[in-house]
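Input (Flagellar hook-associated protein 1):
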Amino acid sequence: MTLTSALSNALSGLTANARAASVVSSNLANIHTDGYGRRDLALTQDGYGTGGGVRVDGVTRHVDAGVLSDRREADSALSHSETRARFLGAVRDSVGTPDQPGSLSARIAALDAALTSAASRPDEAGRLQAVSLRAGELAAGFNAAAATIQDQRMAAEAEIASAVRSLNVDLAQVQDLNVQIQAARRSGGDSSGLLDHRQVVIDRIAELVPVREVPRDGGAVALMTPRGALLLDGPAVTLDFTQSNVIEPHMTMEGGMLSGIRINDRDVAPGGPRSPLEGGRLSALFDIRDTLATDAQSQLDAVARDVIERLQDPSVDPSRTGGEAGLFTDGGGVFAAADEIGIAGRMALNEKVDTQAGNELWRVRDGLGASAPGATGNAALLGAMSDALSARRVPVSGDISIGSSTAAQRIGGLVSHLAQSAMAEDRTSSYAAVRQTELQTRLHSDGVSSDAETQRLLIIEQAYGANARMIRTLDEMMQTLLRI
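Output:
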């Protein structure tokens, strides 16, 4: 080996160690950066005419593709279950539990207690007023629960529109990053930063839609869902959704009144077992809008109908003529079975006994159709209304299996059904969170370790110093030759 070869080798060693130090510093600086893949310097022996120096072939980015894919699947599952759990929890809270003041169970119990109290002293105006107030509060409770469901549907609709916009933007960004990565590799440049950014973007996509990454030539990737929907392979697809500004209880996608999803102008099922997009937050939002909310509304309407019909029965208040509403109305009119959809939101206290509207209390005692006050000691109507609420009836609508039941038991069945649904989804969400956390930990275990990087830095320092000493020694040897 000549002095020139030795000097060239030492200089190549200095260059390699300087690059290695730069890589280590980048690793340490990005130890908490999402999507950052740990880097290593790829080195090979330079055996072409230099006597065996070192050549830097590039920077290698380390990511466990299998764990990353599993983590993304867990992200989708967690986002899906958390979105559903939040909705079910909100609906459960809107009806309350029996031990909560203001819950539907507490309000029906308060109305029954007010009727019993008024029946014992029908001559006391305060007790009659309590019946009116408690009935109004029960109607308001149904209204509030129905409003919560409709608000959640509207919120889901808006979030779907936002999610579709985000998906289109992110898919287009992955398409652009694919092109940039391929160009960087063709020119021999370092594409690690672009790969980091692409990983972050695909992670965002995975929260909305389950996605699998398929390698393509030149470092590009294709994206598809586990159920076969192609999202990107070269050009990205375009997702279309038309947001509705108003959603009424009767409006559904099946009825053609709400938008579904189109991928490149092709209709696809947006949620459910047949959907190619099932599993992320997007499909959960469609579940809320089209299934969970409509089911909850249907159950709430069925219970509201039961309460209204019990007190609308002509045998309860003979003073009313045919076609007149009972204590509760459908937005001020008589309730008809064909109008059940949305009745919980329209349920209202009959204005004839609404003291806040300035009407007479004596109608609570003497009948909604009475033309004048009757005997102050007559408690027949009050007792009949209490009996109607306590009577056991077989439900004529709703699919909660409760059998023959009182009004309070119907409400209790609804409360129990909603609580069980929310609890089941909470369990699913908890499991998904544990699995996502475990996979995230596994992914990080292959990431940047400050201890390992510090040890590498010490080795680099020693190697750099050795190469520097080699250059100094060679310089001294050359100076000696020149002095001869």
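The chain has eleven helices and ten strands.
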